[in-house]
Amino acid sequence: MKKNLLCFFIPVLFYAKSFAQQAEQDTLSVKKLEDVVVKGYEQNRKLNETAGAVGVVNKQQLERYSTISVLPAINAVPGVRMEERSPGSYRLNIRGSSLRSPFGVRNVKVYLNGIPFSDPGGNTYLNQLSFYNFSSVEILKGPGSSLYGAGMGGVMLINSVPNTSNNQLSINYSRGSYNTNNVNISASGGSETYQNSISYTHQSSDGYREQSAMRRDIITWDSKITASKKQELSAHVLFGDLFYQTPGGLTKTQFLNNPKAARPAAGIFPGAIQNNASIQQKMFWAGVDHQYNFTEHFKNNTSVYGAFSKIDNPAIRNYEKRLEPNFGGRTTFSYNTNVKKAQLNLIAGAEFQKGYSTIKVYKNTSGKPDSLQTDDEVNNYQAIVFAQAELSFSKGWIATAGVSLNTSSIEFNRLSIVPSFNYKSHFNNQFSPRFSLLKKLNEKVSVYGVVSKGFSPPTVAELLPSTSVINTNLQAEKGNNFELGIRSYLISNRLFIDVNAFTFQLQNSISQRRDSSGADYFINAGKTQQKGIETALNYTISRNPNQFITNSGLQVSYSYHHFQYKQFKQLDADYSNNRIPGVAPHTVAALLNVETKPGIYVNANYFYSSKIALNDANADYASAYNLLGFKAGYKHVFNQHINAGFFVSGDNLLNETYSLGNDINAAANRFYNAAPGINFLAGISFQYVISPNKNL
């Protein structure tokens, strides 16, 4: 690792030093690093005034990587790991939360434009969003209990609305390795009081492995009406049609001999190709958000949404069909006033979600549904009531105290047996508090501490996993989180440093298992102790529009995670003090960007992961790996109406053989899902601006 890091950073540091010296000759030409405003915790504060571990990824940062996926940009946030087991099959890990996610996103609350996007069963279909559906992302690490209810893994706030009010048409197209195609067409227009945008994205790929092709089509519509200074209404609609094949996990021998292979047949179970292992999903989601300012000090924000998903999932052992309608809403009242020499901000609100699902499982015969095995109706809901008070004092102290009351219920009705079997699980009256204290030592340095308690009930997919056996013994996770952090601007505001240390104690930890067919199931794994340090550095090397190099910078993040079971015994096996599988103790991400006056730009990125335990016994490990990539291109503004550009990008330039999305605790040691080798992408972009602030 040290050798690879030195090879990467020595030329970077030499470059940084030379351009820093050049820029110091004209300090007036250097702009201050932009103040990032965080919307999380409903505070709308600058990042250095926010008491909590928050990662922010804006549109500019997203565009410095390949346009195929937001994965590398998200992985540049310390403590966050996004995985892709095969094209279109995403998994999100915030401080080890992927322990509960064999696939998909669980134990992380996701909001799209401030509206709940996670369903009431605890699952999030993040794969229904393309690169072009992300304008910015905020990631709140640790329990977001005071305002976002149940969930231990954190909160993701996605903004998909384009940051423009111009009337314009944009076209983006790229093509690359493995017959990858990616096209996006969008149009936006309106006026100062009304904005409208519509977007269509098509993405397809043959995949790196056998049985790993994918296709995704997404249509979105976003609209905002500013009725007056007091009132604003926005609407968001998304329709996604996604198909991707699932090649399945490989043993280490299979992985090293042919990482492109799909899972072969074994014993009584057919292979992934024979049973056409894949997922076909259609999803419709629509939300409306209303903001009203009663007075300058008293405001309300209310949103409602409805969603419907239809999923067909032929797998190794069965064929599952799911229909998942759900709806919900969220309302927040905020009030601010002055109390003597302090400013008081009060927030109170509620969130409610309700779902009705039907899940039918059939025998899978060569990729076709055969005889019915199980037929289940699932009714579930979750509700939270929350409140938060914040006091800001004149000498730089900001104190926050919040609490939420959570309740949830999941009811299963199995109709495929006579008499039908009914099981209902309640998780009621769980108080989840959060306290934080921040001190601004001066305008450039702030320190903070956080104490929070988290609560996370099992999801529908965990109580009814792919084994189709209803788990009546699974209990909710509970945990206490303690954090200390510091943020600082240094070197004339060129350097921004964000350091966070935490310890998280978890009880009834939910852990994933896989049987011989590859089906997942879950158990409570006793107590865990999760400690870590997460560091982010952002250094502006130069920023001067009058020089040849108009902008250059370096971003580096590092995470150290020491996660272990404290008390975990299963039958005769004692896993106490073992590493928690699926979590890399060390990760490093770095990005160097250079932009020039003629419009040429170059971005180089690097990612390192240390070895990862693959099972609770710590008997098997995935090897450490280094990833090197780049994106280079040219942008040109022809006139006030037309601008265009092209780019070339490459990933895994070292052609590492590694697994991105391991199957934890897999039977027969089928842990590995191979990631692509060296691959390239080339693309063009075109934008035609009709006229700003006029209707199309």
Low-confidence stretches: 1-32
- What is the subunit arrangement here? single chain
What is the second-level CATH architecture? Beta Barrel
Rounded Rg: 25 Å
Q: Could you name the CATH topology? A: Maltoporin, Chain A
Give the averaged pLDDT, no decimals: 88
Beta fraction: over 45%
How many β-strands, per DSSP?
A: 39
Task: Describe the 3D structure.
The chain is mainly beta and 696 residues long. 6% of the residues lie in helices and 57% in strands. It has a 22-stranded antiparallel β-barrel. A five-stranded mixed beta sheet has the order 3-10-11-7-8. A two-stranded antiparallel ribbon has the order 1-2. It is globular and about 70 Å long. The protein starts with a helix and ends with a strand.
Question: Topology, pairings included?
Answer:
Blueprint: H1 2-24, E1 37-38, E2 45-46, E3 54-58, H2 59-62, H3 71-74, E4 80-86, E5 89-94, E6 105-106, E7 109-112, E8 115-116, E9 123-124, E10 136-140, H4 145-148, E11 155-159, E12 166-176, E13 180-190, E14 194-205, E15 214-226, E16 231-245, H5 252-257, E17 278-293, E18 298-314, E19 319-339, E20 342-365, E21 368-392, E22 397-414, E23 421-440, E24 445-456, H6 460-463, E25 477-490, E26 495-507, E27 510-514, E28 520-524, E29 527-543, E30 549-567, E31 569-570, E32 573-574, E33 586-596, E34 600-609, E35 612-613, E36 621-622, E37 625-637, E38 642-651, E39 679-692
Parallel strand pairs: 7-11
Antiparallel strand pairs: 1-2, 3-10, 4-5, 6-9, 7-8, 10-11, 12-13, 12-39, 13-14, 14-15, 15-16, 16-17, 17-18, 18-19, 19-20, 20-21, 21-22, 22-23, 23-24, 24-25, 25-26, 26-29, 27-28, 29-30, 30-33, 31-32, 33-34, 34-37, 35-36, 37-38, 38-39
